Amino acid sequence: MPELDKLHEAVIEGDWKAASAATQAAIAAGVAPLTIVGGYLVPAMDEVGRRFDCEEYYVPEMLLSARAMKAAMEIVRPLLAATGAEPVGRVVIGTVKGDLHDIGKNLVASMLEGGGFEVIDLGADVAPERFVEAAAARHAGLVALSALLTVTMGSMKTTIDAFQAAGLREKVKIMVGGAPLTRQYADAIGADGYTDSAGGAVALARRLVAA
Amino acid sequence: MRLKLISCEVLFREMCDACAHSPHQVDLEFLPKGLHDLGGKPMAAKIQEAVDRTPEGVYEAILLGYGLCGNGLDGLTARHTRLVLPRAHDCIALLMGSPERYQAYCEQNPGAYYRSTGWLERGKGLQQLTHDTIGFDQPLESMIRKYGEDNGRYLYEEMTRYRSQYGKLTFIETGLEAGGGFIAEAAAEARECGWIFERLPGDLAWLRRLVDGDWAESEFVVAGPGQRIAASYDSGVVKVEA
């Protein structure tokens, strides 16, 4: 369907107006909301992630694609909710305590939303207990922690420890990311997953909720 | 001792002062502050180049005027001459004089932006050397030029929003300010942003111990020939690997 091809292209090109218009047209033509998400938005964001990984896209291009994807989701989300369709998973995301950097976290949040997850974004400088409370209250199976500074990375461990102390560690999978992180560090603090790119975060999140 | 100091230019005044007072002969080499913006691996590669062009058999040690700097020192390897690096997260910790003081200050002030003489006179932006396609710290006009009116404004907002969460500008005062110009400039910047302005007394003793050859294990890592400096992700900040 031409509308849907346009939607795919608009997301990759970061054209939110075209994405919005193509989504409206597809809905009007009777395309199922799930098809729009699973068949077009998810693959388009996967392609954006791939381009980022091979340095064809940088952060601004990704942000624009995410904006286009969100414009489509604005239209599709209420329709999806009406069908009672369950998201792929529910994820609580935030930048850890002491760290105000949010660009990477926002990108991952967008990529996850584009990947079919329900995203509960707690913002930046989030205290460990807020992660625990939100995950418990919203029945999130996945928690995603971000940090940009080596000096705040320690808050990731404190946050994971808070889940342990609250008796919720077995109920959630915790993934971590951010420029100074390494897989080695993620393993050392007992995270369930680590990835070094926003695109990789979606694949990782899917693996973690399926596990 | 004859020592070689390879340092980030952000510490230019402090290092020059420390070297002038050192009992040792210290040869200085400053590298651009913008290396920080390249990311951990490319930054480490540039510093490794500076280490590698240091002649063999001339120096007792190569001193590194850095901290871990976002993993920008991770993986650095000592060749023929040992490397000495403070166990600091970054230059702000060095200017504050101890990792404990820095950690405590960060925890109490997550929304603090830091300034020092180097941060004022050596370029304020973080983006000296990065490829312009990455787009951080670009003014609104250049974002609009590149991405169009609507998307340019959106990107500018998205990429600068974190700044709106900062509430304080902390100027670390070391006594090397040479006149009131630096403090006035930092105060004006705080005023412009609507942030609280704080003058925090710095402490250069740690940095001086680096160039004085006073390298206690608790404050410095020393990597011998063939050994590698690595992030330790604990209170020691960095460690040595074989």
Notes on the protein architecture:
The complex is a heterodimer of chains A (211) and B (242). Chain A has nine helices and five strands; from the N terminus they run ααααβαβαβαβαβα. Chain A folds into two domains: 2-83, Methionine synthase domain (Methyltransferase, Methionine Synthase (B12-binding Domains), Chain A, domain 1, Orthogonal Bundle); 90-210, Cobalamin-binding domain (Rossmann fold). In chain A, strands 2-1-3-4-5 form a five-stranded parallel beta sheet, sandwiched between helices. Helices cover 59% and strands 10% of the residues of chain A. Chain A has 211 residues and is of the alpha/beta class. In chain A, α3 packs antiparallel against α4 (59-83). Chain B is α/β, with parallel strands linked by helices and 242 residues long. Chain B folds into two domains: 2-93 and 204-241; 98-201, no CATH class. Chain B has a five-stranded mixed beta sheet with strand order 2-1-3-4-8, sandwiched between helices. In chain B, strands 5-6-7 form a three-stranded parallel beta sheet. In chain B, β6 (168-173), α8 and β7 form a beta-alpha-beta unit. Classes of the chains: A alpha/beta (211), B alpha/beta (242). The A-B interface holds A 14, 58-60, 63-64, 67, 97-103, 106, 124-125, 149-153, 179-180, 182, 184-185, 188 and B 39-40, 68, 70-71, 89-90, 93, 102-103, 106-107, 110-111, 131, 133-136, 143, 146-147, 151, 154-155, 158-159, 161-162, 165-166, 231, 233, 237.
Show unreliable segments of chain A. Answer: none
Helical content band of chain A: 55-70%
Counting structural domains of chain B, the number is: 2
- CATH top level of the largest domain in chain A is Alpha Beta
Number of DSSP E strands of chain A: 5
Please outline the major beta sheet of chain A: 5 strands, parallel
Terminal CA distance of chain B = 25 Å
Assembly annotation: heterodimer
Tally of helical runs of chain B:
9
